[in-house]
Amino acid sequence: MSGRVKGDNTVIPAALRAFVRGGGLTLAWRGALTAALVCVIGLLPWLSRTDPALTVLKARSAEGDPTPEALRAVRDELGLDDGPLWLLVHWLGGLLRADAGRSWVSGTDVLPSAAQALGVSLMLMAGSLTVAVCTAAAVCIRTLWSGSRRRLGGRAAGGTATAVLAALPEFLIASVLASVIGVQLGLLPALGWYGPQWMVLPSLALGLPAGAVLGRMLDDLLPGAFVEPWALAAAARGIPPTSVARQALRRCVPALLPNLGLFAVGLSGGAVAVEQIFDIHGLGRLTLRAALAQDLPVLQTGTLALIVLAATAGVLARLAARLLIGPALRDGALHSLHRPTPPAPRTLPLLYGALLAAVIGLGLQRDPLALDTAARLQAPSWMHPFGTDALGRDVLARIGHGALNTLAIALAVSAAALVTGALLGLLPRLSRPMADTVNAVPAVLAGLLVTGIAGGGPWTPALAVAAVAWAPLATHTSALLEQERATTHLTATRALGAGPWYLLTRELLPAVLPPVIRHALLRLPGIALSLAALGFLGLGSQPPSPEWGLLLAENQPYAERAPWAVLTPAAVLALLGALAVTAAGGVRRPRLKPRSGQPAQPAQLVPEPPQTPLLTPPTHTP
Amino acid sequence: MRLPRRRLIAGLLLTPFLSGCFASPAGGGASPAGSSGSSEGGRLRVALAFPPTENFSPYGDDAYQLSRLGVSEGLTQLDANGTAIPALAESWSTENGGHSWLFTLRDAKFQDGSEVTPDAVASALTRAAQAEPELVALSGVKLTAKAVGDNQVRVSTETPDPVLPLRLSSPRLAVFSPKAYTNKGTVNPVGTATGPFQLKQITGDTAASLDRFDGYWGGRAQAPGIDATFIADGTARANALRTGQADIAESLPVAQLAALDKATVHEKPTARNVVLHLNTESGPFADPALRAAAREAIDTSVLANTVYEGYAKPGQGIYGPALTWAAGKRIEPKGRARATHPNGASITIATYSNRPELPEVAQVLQQQLQKAGFKVKLDVRDVARFEGDALAGKFDAVVYARNVLSDTGDPVSVLASDYTCEGSNNQSQLCDKKVDQAVAKAASVTDAVQRQDAAMAAEAAVLATGAVVPLVHMKIAMGIARPVKGTLMDPYERLVVGTGTRR
Question: Distance of alpha carbon B292 from its chain centroid, rounded?
């Protein structure tokens, strides 16, 4: 996977050998991680000291009386007294014979239902990926258009709309789509999973935010590609802009492919809310129900399917990246993808910040807990600028009071995820299988696992979210790093006698970190939401706390009758996303790179030293 | 271009493979949104709330789904007054000093064509009595069944059981043809029950398709069949009704009702209560005076009118208005403790989010109790993560929804399981001699009316301890599309589709 073979005519076999050698190690590591995860899941009830007989009994029959005899009967039926190890060994043994056991709750074979759910999830994933790719294309079409025509100069990076889209919670988009397009307009079916037209709305709900994040990341890289020497040469030769645009995509997409893979897998296991709203029986709901009921055979099978899916997606993404820019990576013939000019300081973040501060400031002066059942679900008015919720509380007050708590924890988790992600991203062979595996674990399961291992404390939800949130950042870091290591200027710096430490701190990190930081900021609203999603395990914020995720969740059933109660918190969350993304321009301004010491100049200028010999597209296939 | 065309062809070749990833619409082939209109009315499309958890095993909760869809029946059924009326049994009488009951069967057929014989009924009941884990309807009862003559069954119990006919109305004690019972102890209800509709196809826990059973003893059903889907999310269920994907959507959440066409919302009081259990064993509520303070601080009409938007009645007792006999027999609890000021006593109220109204109830209670001087924290979880801790007494108070007649149809059994020292669902951790005596006394009364009187006395004893505060008596809210007639509104939530249901 290092892929950097000192080239001669035995390049291909050597590369193959290196790949296999690296691949073998990685495979072993991947296997070990998977085994560890499956084992921990097998131990979950014993770790968290929750009696599986009781949860299974209650899952079978909500009103069933948990008499000692009934619990004993369940225990005998499932063989719980044999202990977790025996159960695990038994299940693994069955797996070798393609028998994933029987569900503890329903007593039916796990494999057929898991396969069915997997099929549904794969379809949903394909649909949402299509939407995501289209969204990403829409996001960066402007950059592609003007970049390929060399008219990019001086244009301020946009991103507000994208950031807003990326900050919108999936379940909110799903609710709005289902009730407006599905129910009120009747254009598309609002629930079920019976054919292609049933795929549209759920795919949109999942694909739009994901596509916005991906598009933003791509849009971040594209301007750098257009100022590479080959682009200038192509323009000079009169190569059509579409070809230039295609090559620019080819240059930038490999850095995103691993993240695309993560998204795809995250969409299949983490689509619970959307699956619920559209009544789709996918892997997300299967694992959620199994996790809550501690139905271990189903949970283990579902998680295993997700992990295998994740590994496949990861390997496919890496192969595709290799296909696109493999030779250039091998030959170290890439250029650093830097924006030609640092983004100018902008007034937008100030505006957003002021707006956010104003909302929070106004809200803080009101009482977020005062119930007034006589004033339920009231529309916005002078008394209640953002309306009231189902218990007659002032929504503005709740947003204001929830802000500090929500933002503080989300920022802390994001920062932790960023540091972890960046550090682990430096060790791709170690982190890639870890990131794939961790990313495949549904959020609720992660919450249960962390509670099982670390116990349920006030920091458990933050820990559970951080345990998963680093994965995309690490993947992003390592993908960028791989390209950065293959740049010509790095070879030059090395030739000048720079040591590895100097290279890392002065060349690699300054080049890689800014996009990763912007990525982390883009995910800030999502982290705020996923913290709240753990509430129903009895972790994290509890009502009546005005924490934002909770706020959105508790008002969601009233979305149609009192749209303001969900739309205003969502709008504030989107404002936060926009603020984070636009302000990120300032984060990367003070750069220590000697090369960029040159004054900001029109975009047509090539930032690379003119002695670089390659004036061809980066991926000339031999 | 060459490449895209190749991709297109590959895509087209993949299509049949991918179409396997869609659910097949219930009803076999027809679009679920389309109506299969025929001259005698179309198949009914029913959206049920609780997916089958045990592959339609009649011994678990799925028994209720079988009963709601008109698939299975027992020897008896419950009428609106809570008394047993004939179903598969035409009549019954007690004999042998109450140790056994003799049921006379009616002329009926199983859906597989065979006759409902005394032997088949006896073996079905025997199987149910031997089921593991023990059926809730039979808890504490040792039951044996024997065929007598050519149309009678004698059901005996170790100790006299005055409510046996009520018990036998439980959907879990439905009768299936001998073919249904496997050696492994499971029951296959497909085409083996006796109701007006027979299961034809089960699609996992997502859908089921049923056809009319023409040989039903009560006459042919009007609807030619049922396409049932199981939609757990309340909003999605309401959407199914609003988009015309379902004719009947059961148990809609209150929040969705305002958005529905008024003519499609039907309501009826049920035997389901929401109560506040106070932990009598540990914490501040071990003090009866504080329990009294909590009871006095709670205004239940606010809950009924705002959180439930009128789809519930303020709590009166353990037995609500759905049990029509209870209203005239209520006894004022005696010897209640006097309330003292809580002085900032700190309590935790727990509830679960699976019934979306309960967290809101808890928040209103929080406010009311805080006004009275308590310090209140809430803990809202998924029911699976809630139940264990609640039964272990880890919370000071628990908001809980409970069907007081759920399985046995006997009003006393809920008191025994929820409020006696030995009770298995004792969320108040209550252990009170007077209550135990009153419940034991009620359980021993054989006459139905006197048993109700005794149950009311026991209710008063429970309420006197202050261990429970009845909050509201819920109504079922069912969404029924306009053209559909004859949907059953059952206070015990056991019936939805009957022979007269049609569209």
Answer: 31
